[in-house]
Design a protein that fits this description.
Radius of gyration: 19 Å
Structural class: alpha+beta
Number of strands: 4
Largest sheet: 4 strands, mixed
Distance between the termini: 40 Å
Strand content: 5-15%
Order of helices and strands: EHHHEHEEHH
Shape: globular
Length: about 140
């Protein structure tokens, strides 16, 4: 598993820069070439690039792994604290199969609302309540 989720434009720019090619569309991308590209990118991406263009994946950090017993708001709070302590701009968390992004200046309530909207979209809670006449 990769530790970061990258900004797509940054990936393409870095590939062109690292491989010293004019046009990425001219590349023959095979699974083997893709692995080589990933390795080259990992070796050539600076901490500044990471902080500006990547979101770290919470599941790749042992101290940020969640348990089924943990409250979502406690988990969000841990993610925000990790961002503040490590000078990162964003982190991607996952809780009960729903992926969500936390930004450095986010509040727990903002992130929870975003998470719940995605949860509702995925599982259709509002629709079920409406169908039952409860909403």
């Amino acid at each position: 598993m990769n530790k970061y989720a990258w900004n797509d434009a940054m990936i393409l720019d870095k590939i062109q820069e690292v491989l010293d090619i004019e046009n990425i569309d001219d590349m023959d991308i095979t699974p083997e070439n893709l692995e080589k590209i990933k390795d080259l990118l990992s070796e050539n991406i600076s901490t500044e690039d990471i902080n500006n263009s990547a979101s770290i994946l919470a599941e790749s950090i042992d101290e940020l792994k969640t348990t089924s017993k943990q409250d979502i708001k406690d988990y969000i709070s841990r993610l925000i604290n990790y961002l503040n302590e490590n000078n990162l701009k964003s982190i991607i968390g996952e809780y009960e199969g729903i992926e969500f992004e936390v930004f450095k200046n986010s509040t727990v309530e903002e992130v929870f609302k975003n998470y719940y909207n995605k949860y509702d979209e995925t599982y259709g809670i509002s629709n079920m309540l409406s169908d039952l006449g409860l909403k």
